[in-house]
Design a protein that fits this description.
The structure is a single chain. Helices cover 67% and strands 0% of the residues. It is mainly α and 314 residues long. Helix 5 crosses helix 6. The longest helix is centred in the N-terminal third of the chain and has 25 residues.
């Protein structure tokens, strides 16, 4: 997200508009996969809010936390809940969703000192924790879509398809791409955020371009050794949503524009590497979290250059 905009507008105003931009894609997922998607989102909103209330009360005392409305007005808790929800198959167990809320809000946010102090994207921490802890539950997607697959499952099937060509694989599977509508709506929501000055184009465009270039290089004309086309990687596994709504988190990406591009390049490379070579073919959460580790270093370099510039003028 655009740090300049964040400084001139209330955090709650920005985060609520980001959540609004995310909703069309989330509703498209619900239309494709059923009301179980809405179930996940509602449960996560409630659970993340409860964890926020608990952590705020423990850190600041009940009276002070209540006077600050338990920090729910800033919109970050709502956004984290929505971001976790769009990563999940429909109707995940509330117990699993509770673990995600505890990891995202309690561990990734409040354990680091609260809003603005976290190193890692809270939503991706919550998702990664339950993905590693309950892989079978999160791999169970419905088969009601026209081709019988969802984004993550389609990536898994393609990754382990054996010796058949890409054309043979997609012949009876992507006549109606299950993620195309939601990916398009997430993209439109992201473009609206850029138009509003909330998100800068640097990070999402660089992430998508990096994935696209790598996919084109290793597509191998759709042979049995192909790692998938650029279009395939853009429209499966939540790539567009991650580029516009996750990688642009203003707290966990670097401050300097040049460093933001390097950060986005790293996400794109890690995403493609994990997706095509790893055991978990999606890879978005891990790519973002690994890239988050570089943000303190980039920001330290940025501060050192500012300090050197100031001392040079003295």
């Amino acid at each position: 997200m655009n740090r300049t905009t964040r400084k001139t507008q209330p955090t709650g105003n920005i985060m609520h508009r980001v959540s609004l931009a995310l909703l069309p894609g989330a509703l498209a997922m619900a239309w494709q996969y059923g009301v179980g998607v809405i179930w996940n989102l509602l449960w996560l909103v409630v659970l993340c809010a409860l964890v926020e209330i608990l952590c705020s009360s423990l850190r600041h005392g009940v009276a002070k936390a209540r006077s600050q409305r338990f920090q729910l007005d800033d919109g970050t808790t709502l956004l984290a809940a929505l971001l976790i929800g769009i990563c999940l198959p429909p109707s995940v167990s509330p117990a699993i969703l509770c673990v995600a809320a505890l990891a995202a809000i309690g561990l990734a946010k409040h354990a680091y000192g609260g809003l603005g102090q976290n190193i890692f994207n809270p939503a991706m921490v919550g998702y990664a924790v339950i993905l590693l802890s309950f892989p079978l539950a999160l791999a169970t997607w419905p088969t009601a879509a026209p081709d019988g697959f969802t984004g993550a499952t389609l990536l898994s099937e393609f990754r382990y398809r054996g010796g058949i060509t890409a054309d043979e694989f997609f012949l009876n599977r992507v006549a109606a791409h299950p993620n195309l509508i939601s990916a398009g709506l997430f993209g439109l929501g992201g473009v609206w955020l850029i138009q509003q000055g909330i998100v800068h184009w640097r990070i999402p465009l660089t992430v998508l371009a990096t994935v696209g270039v790598l996919a084109s290089v290793f597509h191998d004309q759709g042979s049995s050794a192909s790692l998938g086309s650029a279009w395939f990687h853009w429209t499966t596994g939540g790539t567009v949503a991650a580029a516009f709504f996750v990688a642009t988190d203003p707290v966990t990406h670097p401050a300097r524009p040049g460093h933001q591009i390097a950060f986005a390049l790293l996400i794109g490379c890690l995403l493609f590497l994990i997706r095509t070579q790893g055991n978990l073919p999606d890879g978005i959460a891990f790519a973002v979290l690994l890239a988050n580790c570089t943000t303190p270093l980039f920001n330290r370099i940025h501060r050192q250059k500012i300090a050197e510039g100031v001392s040079g003028h003295e």
